[in-house]
Structures are given as structure tokens and as C-alpha cells.
Amino acid sequence: MTSQHSTSAAARVAIVTGGSRGIGRGVSHWLAEDGLAVVVNYARDKDSAEETVAAITAGGGRALAVRADVADEEEVAALFDRAQEEFGGVDVVVNSAGRMALSPIADLDLAELDAMHRTNIRGTFVVARQAARRLRAGGSFVGFSTSVVGTQFPAYGAYAASKGAVESMTLILARELRGRDITVNTVAPGPTATDLFLEGKTPDEIDRLAKAPPLERLGTAQDIAQVVAFLTSPAGHWVNGQILRANGGMV
Q1: Are the C-beta atoms of 26 and 222 separated by less than 8 Å?
Q2: What is the DSSP pairing of strand 37-42 with strand 63-67?
Q3: Is residue 122 classed exposed, middle or buried when 0-12, 13-18 and 19+ CB atoms within 10 A define those classes?
Q4: How far apart are CA 146 and CA 187, in angstroms?
Q5: Which of 68, 92, 192, 198 is deepest in the core (most CB within 10 A)?
Q6: Is 37 helix (H, G, I), strand (E, B) or coil?
Q7: Contact, 39 vs 14, CB < 8 A?
Q8: Is 137 exposed, middle or buried (0-12, 13-18, 19+ CB in 10 A)?
Q9: Helix (H, G, I), strand (E, B) or coil at 178
Q10: What does the angle CA 22 – CA 124 – CA 65 come to, to the nearest 5 degrees?
Q11: Element (DSSP H or E) covering residue 67
């Protein structure tokens, strides 16, 4: 597989959590196109992870599927160990694993709240902790938020709150890694046409959200993957501690 953007990435290694589907799959493919070896993490959907790996390797890339629950510190440590053993180290960590449940706050199922926060908050911290310990110089950590932190749509209260936590730790972690030549950024997509986004929405709701940005369309996994690829590339290495709202112009 020939890199579209850089020939210096051949020895670089990425871990993409939630890499088997949606935005995570798009990120896995794009980083592989850029020449990185990619560890495709999944929690449950082994078949989708293996499909992602097969597509990457069929194109000449290097990839490996590894199961781990992002909120389980032992499993995440083993995930990083596997990347080290197979590819020699870790240069890029993209934490795209996430969980979303929509509900008015008055009707919120607290068990669902706990499950969402376990993945979105605890999972981010568990993955970021390993990234902070193991990323090589010149590396990057990218977390995921949501543009709903800014748009404040009804029914997104619990989800937006969990992602607000990710935004809050971004610059702090970047500052804690001073002197290591490692960047930390968070991407906050707007409405993006993935299974996670489309599930449970009516065609009218999807159409309304697609028309919300000035560009008048839903984002794609590739749109977001290219933003991540920039942030984790040498070209994006001066961007650090930032929240990047990739949403076509939504407020």
C-alpha cells in the first residue's frame, strides 16, 4: 500500500480503539493508507474488526485486530503490550470507542448513564493513561468528543456530559506531557453518517440534522478520519491541546 500523504510513516504504529466500525474503521483505513501499522481494537464485534483488518492487509497494509474493553485497565494494558510485541512500539493512539444513549434528563435510565460514562469517561482515561506512559517521542493521542457539547440539543444531556469530560482533560494531558514531544487533541464531530448516529432516528430527524451545517450534509467517517490523520501526522504536530469541531460549520 502506497502512502497518499507521507513516505516517512512506514515504521509508525497506531492503536485505534473502536476501530472495527464507523468512524474508528474510517480512521483505521486512513492511517493504514498513510503507511502506519494499525492495531484495530474492538470490544464485541470480532467479525467487523477482522473485516477491517482484511481490507487493510489486502491493500498491502499492516493491521491486527485485538479485543479489549477500553474501561478495563488490564485489558487495555494488554492491548498496548500486543502492539509493542507485534510492531515494536506505539506512536499514535486514537480513542474512538464510545457509547451513546439519548434521553431527556427527567427520564434518564441511570444504569444507562453509568454504562455510558464507563465507556466514554473511564475508557478515555484508561486509554489515555497507557498512551501517556507508552507513546514514543513525536507521537499523538486523539480523543473523541461531540459537537453536541456546543449545540446543546435536547435528549443529549448525559452523552454530552460524558464527552465534556473528555474535552476537559485534553489540554491538561497535553501540559502533563511537556517535554515528551507528544501531542494531545480531541476531535468533536458533528452529525456523521455512522450506525451509532443513525440508530433510532427517523428519516425526518436525519434530514433535519443533515441540513443543520452550512454545508448541508451529514459528515462521513472519511471526513473525520482525515482530520485525525492530519492531527497525528508531522504536518499537524504543532496543533496541541485543542478541541477540533469537525462539523461542517455548526455552532
Answers
A1: yes
A2: parallel
A3: middle
A4: 8
A5: 92
A6: strand
A7: yes
A8: exposed
A9: coil
A10: 50
A11: strand 63-67
* Cβ neighbourhood burial of 90 (10 Å; 0-12, 13-18, 19+): buried
5: three-class secondary structure by DSSP: coil
What is the three-class DSSP state of 175?
helix
Cell representation of residue 118: 464507563
Amino acid at 142: V
Domain 13-189+221-244 indexed as CATH 3.30.565.10? no
Q: What is the pLDDT of residues 153-197, one digit of tens each?
A: 999 999 999 999 999 999 999 999 999 999 999 999 999 998 878
Read off the pTM: 0.94
Query: What CA–CA distance (Å, rounded) separates 115 from 112?
Result: 5
| Residue bearing cell 470490544 | 43
For the annotated catalytic residues, the residue numbers are 159
Residue 219, φ and ψ in degrees, nearest 5: -70, 165
Query: How do 140-144 and 13-17 pair as beta strands?
Result: unpaired
Distance of alpha carbon 147 from alpha carbon 107, whole angstroms: 23
Please say whether the beta carbons of 18 and 77 come within 8 A. no
Cβ atoms of 83 and 65 within 8 Å: the answer is no
**What span, in angstroms and rounded, lies between the C-alpha atoms of 47 and 193?**
21
Q: What are phi and psi of 95, to 5 degrees?
A: -100, 85
**Tens-digit pLDDT profile for residues 86-141:** 999 999 999 999 999 999 999 999 999 999 999 999 999 999 999 999 999 999 99
